[in-house]
């Protein structure tokens, strides 16, 4: 049974509480909480939805990702973009330069996973620092060299296709960085920080929400805002988040769209969006049991994204190992980043990641053994694929489409 089918069964059980609203055929209610047709909430005539900080960090991450492919970029410049300080001229967008937000400060920074685990948080941030350092110091100097086992450089996809730039083991650091960030920033902040009960109910948040005590100078309660910030890490690049079209950034938005496009997982995008809507409505109605049920649905389904894509790219890499090594290495580099992201997932039944950091590190070590992708075997790729798929209750074949 796939994870998607398990979710649908859970939804069917909850559906005994559902009734269709007479005001809007698209609206549903759960325990008297109305799910609106779109993610749109107002207090009087003023919107209470705000997630500008998340939009800013997504935009920063996009520029950093682009800078990984510009050989004129120095290590200092990339590092400064990653750990931006307000007023520094790090980005092409003046609004980003003036912002006091940074990407690095929110990597491995969730309340539930890292507030009491500074050792792992520091190690994870160091991984991203190392991707930056290695790209500039190992890849850029070898940019025009031909890559081979043990030698960094460029390798071109078959038929005059895209040129990939890899390290001595065949890994593209830009892919490890971007796909790893999907987990260490977006997934971790959504699942383990802003949807965390410890964050939503922190201090007087619940009493303030019950009494509609607003954040000073704002139109929203602190609890409403925390939920919106989780929403923003997925939909913050949308031109209109009340009508999300997905694939609007290089992170969760893009890859929820990819998983949605697989018939075995079709409907996951709607499941996630509907849970965000209903959970936010539950906060407005002070119904915290419905809020927490929706947070669990989001955790389960967002966690599925890096798992499905890790298996997809492992199999894509396996299928191209002989005929098109450059294409294979590109797929395996993406898989590397998605596997890295598995340590930031969250199983709603255990409140722990589906894969621990130790398990993730073991898989990454398997991929990098010896000459890395130059030496990797189909057997190893199938073994890792099957392990990931089994943990999430889907099959390798289902994720390979």
Strand order of the largest sheet: 1-2-3
The class by helix and strand makeup works out as: mainly alpha
Low-confidence stretches: 1-26
What string, H for helix and E for strand, traces the elements in order? HEEEEEHHHHHEEHHHHHHHHHHH
Largest sheet: 3 strands, antiparallel
Distance between the termini: 18 Å
The coarse overall form would be: globular
Percent range of helical residues = 40-55%
Descriptors for this entry?
401 residues, mainly alpha, 3-stranded antiparallel sheet, two-stranded antiparallel ribbon, 17 helices, 5% strand, disordered N terminus, DUF4856
Notes on the structure:
- InterPro entries: DUF4856 (IPR032331).
- With 401 residues, this protein is mainly α.
- It has a domain at 46-301.
- The protein has 17 helices and 7 strands.
- It has helices at residues 3-14, 52-67, 75-82, 94-98, 111-114, 118-139, 173-194, 197-200, 205-210, 222-235, 252-260, 268-284, 288-320, 325-341, 357-368, 378-391, 396-399; strands spanning 18-20, 28-30, 33-35, 42-43, 46-47, 153-156, 163-166.
- Strands 1-2-3 form a 3-stranded antiparallel β-sheet. A two-stranded antiparallel ribbon has the order 4-5.
- Strand 2 and strand 3 (33-35) form a beta hairpin.
- Helix 10 runs antiparallel to helix 12 (268-284).
- The longest helix is centred in the last third of the chain and has 33 residues, at 288-320.
- It is globular, with a radius of gyration of 21 Å.
Task: Please provide a brief summary of the model.
InterPro entries: DUF4856. With 401 residues, this protein is mostly helical.
